[in-house]
Amino acid sequence: MIASLHGKIQARDSRALVIDVNGVGYRVYVGAALLGRADGETVDLFTHLHLSGDTIELYGFATIDELGLFLSLIKVAGVGPKSALAILSGTPAAQLRQAIIDGDPAPLTRASGIGKKTAERIILELSGTLVQRLAPAEDEVLDALERLGYTRREAADALQHVDRGVEDVRDRLRAALKALNKKP
Question: Are 80 and 55 in contact (CB under 8 A)?
Fold first, then answer.
């Protein structure tokens, strides 16, 4: 299994990059943001090797969160790897995750080939599991704020002011502390 790649962009087409890793070129399907990178640029990708019938395809992502969301999406009936990649190309992973949790199909239906019924199926199947994935990070931040002397309620209120796009625990903690320090 190929879990990640570190190499230089050697070539591209409309949907994939060729990544040169020590003289071996890997064709990797990537989203729009990675397709915009310059030839010769060094990239680090988390990958998924997809086997289907007689086809072997490699999909690449800039973050482990994007890879995790991709793997969740392809488990939904009617969503293949190309559709999942199209969904991720249209919306940042954190915003997409929040849209699924909130039951908002709009970011999903912007992707080519994803209609309202498929978007609703994705929301139905993934909303509960995505909430569970977010909870440990929130708990970590809440616990850290409590250890710093804030009440659980103060900590939870501060987290309400933190942008959902901030995913890293340390960054969420910093943002929550800034929100707490702004209060009179």
Answer: no
